[in-house]
Amino acid sequence: MKSLAEKIAPDAIKKLIPYQSARRIGGEGHLWLNANELEASCVYEGQQGAYHRYPDFLPDKLASAYLEYCQTHAPAMGCKAVAVRGADEAIDLLVRTFCQPGVDKVMVCPPTYAMYEFCADSIAVEALKVPLLSDFQLDMEEIISQLDVVNILFLCSPNNPTGNIISQTDIITLLDLAKDKALVVVDEAYIEFAPQTTVVGLIEQYPNLVVIRTLSKAFGLASVRCGFLLADDSVMDMVTRLIAPYPIADPTAEIALAALTEKGICQMNTQTDDLITIREWFASELNQLEIVEQVFTSSTNFLLVKFNTPICMYRYLCSKGIVTRNQVHEPALSNCVRITIGSQESMRETLLALKQMEAERI
Ligand SMILES: Cc1ncc(COP(=O)(O)O)c(C=O)c1O
């Protein structure tokens, strides 16, 4: 029987023979003269390793290390992992693998991460929008009524920029309803801030579920550009036809592997706990300010804050040298600013600026 991935992938993708890079072809021998690399390493100033050879085309060690890390919160038996250049590349790959430009559609639930719509727009795939409800949960009725016409439903949990977790019961309902229709992609970029809510454990039961992860957030490796796609074999078979010949640079793989050791994960967990403590302290301080209308509950490393001031708080904070993220473009988030949680010192400075503004206003 045809898998859902095979059913929805455009014919051009199904016919595609993956690019046969030198590493993919492999071989055995003592002289490697097959990839037009230099045979000896050039060592530039400050360089530690040797980088004259192309990296693995799909670094297995990294994928295995990430799967092992996933097991700490959920059984990830039936799923495969592939490393990509950040979660952003995973989103782009999924749209290009499973949607035919000008024909297929995806669904997004704003306010959410803008890249889902951007990647769809970039190849003329229509993005149907079903806005979140006022409590930032899914509008199930509306989603279900349009599920038949999309190839991918993008969900984000915990969601950016609202910070909340999407109901797992709703996700399961959608996975059941979309079983023969659409892939349900759950972007878990912020999952380390609420690890018990992961849906990775459901992949074995739902081959139409794809989970996206990253080392950019809790692991603190945004500049390394490393993310992961977790899915059933049938999805991976299609995605890896399109993946770049050498998606992961060796220095990236080395840093990522160090982060995924027991010691690295322990360090990340401690950092995450500390950040959550700062976030909760900052939220309680913000709640005492008159200029703050609401601090939304967050399961991430940021807070969405609604102000009740006539002036734009994003611009006010910018004038104090504090750069946050304005949310004016989101109809549901008027007067809202998204503030990333930094060190206690940075949050103290931000608070001080807000208190000054409040004092000036009175
Ligand atoms: C929800 C979400 N997904 C994906 C990304 C991109 O992550 P990466 O740095 O791994 O590309 C971000 C970055 O802000 C994000 O908020």
TrEMBL record:
One of its GO terms (molecular function) is histidinol-phosphate transaminase activity. GO terms for biological process: L-histidine biosynthetic process. Its cofactor is pyridoxal 5'-phosphate. Gene3D superfamilies: Aspartate Aminotransferase, domain 1, Type I PLP-dependent aspartate aminotransferase-like (Major domain). CDD domains: AAT_like. It comes from the Bacteria. Belongs to the class-II pyridoxal-phosphate-dependent aminotransferase family. Histidinol-phosphate aminotransferase subfamily. This is histidinol-phosphate transaminase. It comes from Photobacterium lutimaris. The lineage of its organism: Bacteria, Pseudomonadati, Pseudomonadota, Gammaproteobacteria, Vibrionales.
